[in-house]
Backbone:
């Protein structure tokens, strides 16, 4: 604020990210006055806010906002928000938590973005580093907030970076960065696919090595950037034939058989190729890379088998928050029985017709639920349309037979009925166990 000695910093949005920003600024010290604005009436994390940090909840405080020297906006707050536009028009700097991280980090950083697979690749590279004995911090858009990790002095940081985070990041120097793939997502926030793509491409702006996907040309790095690529048929990291089987290969050298990968699904073969490229860029030992790929089974809520009951598999793929994620889950799926597929939720303005030909090739019953469930109903001839995920599960448990799979892969965000995709997945898992147990007891009593 003009005429005062203290630097006025306003943090927009509390929760895990906002708290990490506040705590980082307090650790740094200096003559600063920190205020927090959250439009939610009861923002998560408010009780953890230090008493010397003022909070305005339930709406905007434009006096605070327009008097700021710097605004730190949480990723969920779009830069197009009118209040932020007013601040930008006054020349007030608007950054995100990753930009603050970029200004203070001294160890090498690997960055991962993409519409799908970024959490898996981030975690896998982290496991590779741990297997090599590296003190690694893994977080960003998953797990730990980037700024919280700075306090631990890691030797390497592996960050999942969303398009939202990249929008407010301009000085993150990275040893290597990958843009895994591009598919329709967040169309409720972006003006179109090109706007979304441009936000993702920002990951290449200041990286020593850009890694891109030969099978998705939209991820290609600028010609001015040192780049390597991965892909099923070409690229520095690709597939080859060895001993009559398909192998991962790096720069012409066969590394390990695809069948040795612990992760399930064709999309995860591509994820392993990308992870190898990133790990090589920071000198992670090849043996450690292979160990991680043989042992790492993936994250919860990502094609996670949570129950087998009377020959029926229940699989939680709640992380599938867009159509491309659901397509990846269905790619190459082979079952002895029927697929009971649960889809729906908050569609985020997406178009779901890409699922139709894939569903046509499967023996599937499609359960459509949630706010945008009706948008899936025309994809199959006899959809089951209900209001909630639990109602769909009640029907599935009565009709599924041995050899069938009940798969939650919603192709939508969860916000219409759940706090986030983790809560949705946990609810699916808990309810599957409860209803199958109840069903078993009823059968015995009969």
Residues:
């Amino acid at each position: 604020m003009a005429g005062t000695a203290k630097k006025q910093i306003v943090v927009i949005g509390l929760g895990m990210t906002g708290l990490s920003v506040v705590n980082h600024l307090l650790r740094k010290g200096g003559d600063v006055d920190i205020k927090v604005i959250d439009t939610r009436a009861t923002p998560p994390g408010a009780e953890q806010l230090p008493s010397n940090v003022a909070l305005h909840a339930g709406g905007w405080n434009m006096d605070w906002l327009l008097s700021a020297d710097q605004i730190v906006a949480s990723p969920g707050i779009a830069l197009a928000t009118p209040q932020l536009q007013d601040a930008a028009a006054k020349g007030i700097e608007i950054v995100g938590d990753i930009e603050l991280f970029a200004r203070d980090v001294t160890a090498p950083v690997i960055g991962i973005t993409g519409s799908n697979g970024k959490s898996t690749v981030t975690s896998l590279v982290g496991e590779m580093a741990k297997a090599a004995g590296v003190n690694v911090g893994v977080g960003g858009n998953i797990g730990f907030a980037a700024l919280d990790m700075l306090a631990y002095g890691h030797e390497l940081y592996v960050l999942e970076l969303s398009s939202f985070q990249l929008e407010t990041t301009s000085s993150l120097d990275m040893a290597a960065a990958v843009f895994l793939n591009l598919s329709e997502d967040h169309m409720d926030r972006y003006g179109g696919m090109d706007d979304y793509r441009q936000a993702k491409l920002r990951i290449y702006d200041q990286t020593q090595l850009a890694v891109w996907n030969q099978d998705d040309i939209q991820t290609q790095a600028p010609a001015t950037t040192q780049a390597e690529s991965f892909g099923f048929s070409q690229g520095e990291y690709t597939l080859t034939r060895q001993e009559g089987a398909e192998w991962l290969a790096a720069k012409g050298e066969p590394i390990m058989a695809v069948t040795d990968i612990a992760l399930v699904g064709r999309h995860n073969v591509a994820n392993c190729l990308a992870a190898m490229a990133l790990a090589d860029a920071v000198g992670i030992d090849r043996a450690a890379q292979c160990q991680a790929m043989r042992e790492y089974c993936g994250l919860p809520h990502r094609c996670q088998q949570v129950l087998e009951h009377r020959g029926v598999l229940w699989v939680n793929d709640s992380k599938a928050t867009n159509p491309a994620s659901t397509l990846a889950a269905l790619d190459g799926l082979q079952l002895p029985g029927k697929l009971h597929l649960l889809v729906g939720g908050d569609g985020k303005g997406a178009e779901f017709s890409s699922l139709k030909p894939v569903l046509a090739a499967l023996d599937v019953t499609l359960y459509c639920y949630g706010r945008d469930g009706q948008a899936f109903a025309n994809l199959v001839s006899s959809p089951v349309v209900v209001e909630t995920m639990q109602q769909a599960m009640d029907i599935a448990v009565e009709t599924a037979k041995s050899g069938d799979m009940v798969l939650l892969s919603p192709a939508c965000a969860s916000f219409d009925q759940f706090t986030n995709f983790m809560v949705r997945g946990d609810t699916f898992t808990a309810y599957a166990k409860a209803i199958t147990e109840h069903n078993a007891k009823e059968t015995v009593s009969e």
Remarks:
- Residues 421-445 form the longest helix (25 residues).
- The CA atoms of residues 248 and 254 lie 6 Å apart.
- The first strand starts at residue 7 and ends at 12.
